[in-house]
Amino acid sequence: MFDLIGKTAIITGSSKGIGRSIAFAMAEQGAQVVVSSRKADACQAVADDINQKFEGKSGGAIVIPCNISDKTALQMLVDETRAQLGKIDILVCNAATNPYFGSMQNIPEEAIDKVMDNNIKSNILLCQMVIPEMVEREEGSITIISSVGGIKASTVIGAYNVTKAADIMLVKNLAAEFGQHNVRTNAIAPGLFRTDFAKALWENPDILKASTAGCPMRRIGEPDEIGGAAVFLASKAGSFVNGHTLVVDGGSII
């Protein structure tokens, strides 16, 4: 039911954190994964770990570095994946940025442009690049990594939350348009996880205690706890899940 043998998956921002977890989880289920982020050496380390762990099995990894803010680089990521692996069955848009911490009243225009381009525009462009072949095959899965920040407000990461809310609506619109071709588009909305991206919220024990006070499980999520959700959405197990946002946050938003 969760078998991904014979499938090819692109995972952006997969050199660490949540993206790395998803790459490992999909490779464990037999997928050929493309590890991608800006830094080739960091990607290679992840790919080497995957290939060593699953040596002799169907799942494996290759590296195609990509800066998601560059449309040419995005197209190269897609073209090179097809050249090396033949097709793209699964796309996971995980790479994102949060260049500003503070009131939306004071966010610089360049920070607005950066967060909008990286967290929304790059996802739209990547989807435009891979959807045609999925429609032609009448099969495909796209997962965009949103955030609980796309569901609730914040006084310090407001612009980031706006982009994550946009990703949730992007998923719904793509699901509505391409579901008829058996191309499913969903989102995952993680809560607080122990990643470099969220280090400011967990590195200090006092801040961590405050950050997890509203979570029924009274703890932070670990990156390895997110990969299974992505496998579910990409596999036969999730074959009738479309346009959905799966919240993985230990119950925090309740």
Q: In words, what does this structure look like?
A:
This protein has 254 residues and is an alpha/beta fold. It contains 7 helices and 7 strands; from the N terminus they run βαβαβαβαβαβααβ. A 7-stranded parallel β-sheet has the order 3-2-1-4-5-6-7, with helices on both faces. α2 links the parallel β2 (32-36) and β3 (60-63). α3 (71-85) packs parallel to α4. The radius of gyration is 17 Å and the shape is globular.
Percentage of residues assigned to helices: 40-55%
Q: How many runs of DSSP E, i.e. beta strands?
A: 7
What would you report as the Rg, rounded to the nearest angstrom? 17 Å
CATH names the topology as Rossmann fold
Strand order of the largest sheet: 3-2-1-4-5-6-7
Main beta sheet: strand number and arrangement? Answer: 7 strands, parallel
Shape annotation: globular
CA-CA gap between termini: 30 Å
State the name of the first-level CATH class: Alpha Beta
Q: Indicate the structural class.
A: alpha/beta
Strand residue content:
5-15%
Q: Number of helical segments?
A: 7
Looking at the chains present, what oligomeric state does this protein adopt?
Answer: single chain
How many domains in all? 1
Q: What's the helix-strand series?
A: EHEHEHEHEHEHHE
